Amino acid sequence: MPTSIARRAQRRLLVGAIACAILVLAFSWTPRAIWAQMTRPERSARQPPPQAAILSGRVSTTGDRSVWSVLVTARDASSGAVLTALTDNAGHFTFDDVAPGYYTLSFTKPGYAGAAYGAKHPGDAGSPVAVASGRHLDLAMTIVKGGVIAGRVTDEIGAPVADARVFAVTRRVERGIRRDIAVGSGTTDDEGNYRVFGLQSGNYLIAVASPYAPRQPAGRAGLPFPPSGLSLSMPGLMNSSDPPTRATGYLSAFYPGVFDPSQAGIVTLNAAETRTNVDLTFHPRTTIEMRGYVVLPDGRPAARAEIVVRAAPDNASAAAGGTNNVTFLTRPDGRFVVPDLQVGAYTVIALATSPGSGRMTMAAPPSRGIRPGAFDLVAIAHVTTNDTGFVGVPTLHLARGGAVQGMITTSTSAPSDALDLQDLQVAIRSDATTGLVAVPPAGVGADGSFTIRGVPPGVYTLSVANIAARRRVPISIQAATAGDVDVLSEGLTIAPGAAGNVQVVVGPPTLLTGRVLDATGLPSSAYYVAVFPEQEHVWTPLSARLRMPVHAATDGAFQFDGLPAGDYYVAALADFDAERWPSASDLRQLVRTALKVSLRAGERTAVDLQVAPR
User: Fold this and answer.
1) Distances from the Cα of 480 to the Cα of 255, 288, 501, angstroms
2) 284 with 309: CB under 8 angstroms?
3) Is the dihedral of CA 252, 257, 262, 267 positive or negative?
4) What are the respective helix, strand and coil percentages of the chain, to the nearest 5?
5) Other residues' Cβ atoms within 10 Å of the Cβ of residue 86
6) Which of 558, 500, 495, 491 is nearest to 530 (CA)?
7) Dihedral of the CA atoms 338, 341, 347, 348 (nearest 10)?
8) Minimum mean pLDDT among 17-21, 261-265, 416-420: which range?
9) Is 293:328 a contact under the CB 8 Å cutoff?
10) Which helix (H) or strand (E) holds 543?
């Protein structure tokens, strides 16, 4: 009996010990389980998934009348993705499942002046529209009928010129470069009447291109370069008695009846205005031949050298249906003839290979530009043609093309293992004085070295891009120097046969963001934002530290990315003159109301600009 009682007591003690152990284990693990359940919702709450939004609106015109069949284009400011929609009979449009972000909206319809949402001037990009996650944004947009320029085209005896193409050419200036652009056209009827419609307000040149077919001498049509039978009297300055070598067209004429665009009359058009009786007199006059002579460095004729003729950006005749870009080859005696040019400015580039170099010279489509490694000799000239029928190019003396070479290093702010230098590509771009020469980019070696050969003389800007297919690390140039020259501010000047040695530092891009606030402290989209460097000596059109002003978005936000690190001014301005930008006098006035910011590589700098009450 005592033995059985003792056994029951031992079992009770054992059961109690096991129960205590279970309780201890349970209480020791419970806090960890509770902590895990509490932190999971916190992590998802910090980064909620974005929800698709809806962007809609109504397009109307004068008198609040709805406009149907308007093409609405929404472009994502970050990705470049494009959405399109047409308005219905009530003028409504809708974009469903829109990703949150900022979008620029443009509205076009034949007969109406194209416009952008929030634009202040014709051609203005407008204010980016802020689309919030999961929201429905409804907009109202007003467009107006386009302006009209109409008239009649007659020949020198007053007879109507039928089936002639008439162009409206506008002149725009951006960062010191003037460009002539044809923005509208029409065709004359059997009575010589024309009508160019859908124009925005502004100043225009009116040009008429010849309706007459070019003359095609038998057996000479389609030749890539002149036949060898032509004898020219002087190398460099051609004799006007030399016969033409191939088909010849006719010059375009400008209102009221001149061939030189600089002597043309300017037609000023107000919003939705119709200008009539803008009549032109068309005198058929043959197009212009450009004749020249190319020699090798040792003075011998350069046979089969490639001649590239490009119209200057401000060549209105080329904009109005003329020649913009042609490629020809020199004959065995080094001479060349380029036919069918209009009145205006051109850049002539001669390209060749050194004898015995082993390279093969081939004519290339103009769109390809200058091919890397294909040429090592280059000459360049700037020529302005007139209506005398021909123009002689001074002898083009080929010399070894220049080179842009250097080293790329990463800044201390860049992670050492984040960027493979061999994923980078270096590109240069000429300014207007060089003739907007297209030079192909170059790859970068594992040690950061790069070389671009065959560079024509001129002034160039430099850029570096990451072209990796999989791991595209964002970068920007933080510094670029050639000796004591700041390439980011002054550009890179390449002399004939010379090499520009550039030291480039790349790193994570800077990011400047902020909002524009009105006098009451509310976000405002009624302003532009300008950012410019603190140092006045770099206020130049070539400066990478100087950007065109941007519109504040509908929520007042603005953003500049990729500026070189340094000290800057940021200012809000109600308006600016794009043709004068960057004007040193305008920037000095902005300094008075601007804020100073310091941008560092890889860092985001945020600043709010509050506009003072007037």
Assistant:
1) 47, 43, 10
2) no
3) negative
4) 10, 45, 45
5) 11
6) 558
7) 0
8) 17-21
9) no
10) none
Give the pTM. Answer: 0.76
Query: Which residues contact residue 33 at a Cβ distance below 8 angstroms, ignoring those fewer than 6 apart?
Result: none
With contact defined as beta carbons under 8 Å apart, do 526 and 90 qualify?
no
Q: What is the pLDDT of residue 505?
A: 94
Asked whether the beta carbons of 531 and 569 are under 8 A apart, the reply is: yes
Of the ranges 68-82, 147-161, 383-397, which one carries the lowest mean pLDDT score?
383-397
CB of 368 within 8 A of CB of 374?
no
User: Is the Cβ–Cβ distance between 182 and 320 less than 8 Å?
Assistant: yes
What residues are paired with 452 via a beta bridge?
A: 404
For the ranges 235-249, 459-473, 546-560, 598-612, which has the lowest average pLDDT? 235-249
Burial (Cβ within 10 Å: 0-12, 13-18, ≥19) of residue 298: exposed
- List pLDDT tens digits, range 15-29: 555 555 444 444 333
For the ranges 90-99, 246-255, 286-295, 384-393, the lowest mean pLDDT is seen at: 246-255
The number of angstroms, rounded, from the C-alpha of 54 to the middle of its chain's C-alpha atoms is: 30
- What is the helix (H) or strand (E) element at residue 159, kind and residue range? none
Nearest C-alpha neighbor of 432 from the set 461, 452, 405, 455: 461
575 is written with which tokens? Answer: 């308006």
In three-state secondary structure terms, 553 is coil
Q: Is the peptide bond before 508 cis (omega within 30 degrees of 0)?
A: no
DSSP 266: P
* Alpha-carbon distance values, 74 to 126, 209, 550 (Å): 12, 35, 18
Instruction: Give the residue among 297, 291, 315 at the shortest CA–CA distance from 393.
Output: 291
Question: Is the per-residue pLDDT at 225 higher than 50?
Answer: no
pLDDT in tens, 342-382: 899 998 989 888 876 544 444 334 333 444 346 788 888 88
Quickly tell me which residue has 């240069």 as its tokens. 428
**Greatest CA span in the chain, whole angstroms?**
146
CA distance 506 to 163: 56
Sort strands 396-397 and 288-295 into parallel, antiparallel or unpaired. Answer: parallel
CB 424, CB 506: distance < 8 Å: yes
Interatomic CA distance for residues 155 and 161, integer angstroms: 6
Rounded CA-CA distance 269/288 in Å is 32
What is the token pair recorded at 14?
A: 């054992």
Element holding 117 (H helix, E strand): none
| Cα distances (angstroms) measured from residue 242 to each of 231, 232, 334, 385, 387 | 8, 7, 16, 17, 17
